[in-house]
Amino acid sequence: MCQLQFTSSWEDVIQQLHGSPRNKDLRRLTLLAVQGTIYWLWHERNTRLHQQTFRTAEAIFSTIDKQLWNRVQSFRHTNPRASTAMMQLWFLRS
User: Fold this and answer.
1) Percentages of the chain per state (helix, strand, coil), in multiples of 5
2) pLDDT above 70 (res 64)
3) Nearest to residue 64, comparing CAs of 32, 20, 24, 19?
């Protein structure tokens, strides 16, 4: 959804993030999405390893989507323009 190409190399991920769009709202949204994805994939990995519980890819994506939506909504009071712009970008890409 953030127009990043899958890669297993951290150097490639960092390079893609450095080359992310100049649009400030899209850049922030992309960084939030990457951050949430890394967190929830690591969380899923630990849950599978230590508790032997598994969630589907759709369930993980739903969790990431919900977290991103909540995070963007948290900007509403301090920066309503950015919150609205990021939500519009997220809905356009989903």
Assistant:
1) 75, 0, 25
2) yes
3) 32
C-alpha to C-alpha distances, 84 to 24, 40, 67, 88, nearest whole angstrom: 13, 25, 16, 6
Give the chain's length.
94
Angle (nearest 5°) at CA 29 between 37 and 81: 150
Other beta carbons within 10 angstroms of residue 23's beta carbon come to 12
Half-sphere exposure for 55 (CA within 13 Å, toward CB): 16
Q: What is the pLDDT of residues 66-82, one digit of tens each?
A: 998 898 888 888 888 88
Listed by start position, the domains of the chain span 23-93
- H or E element that contains 86: helix 80-93
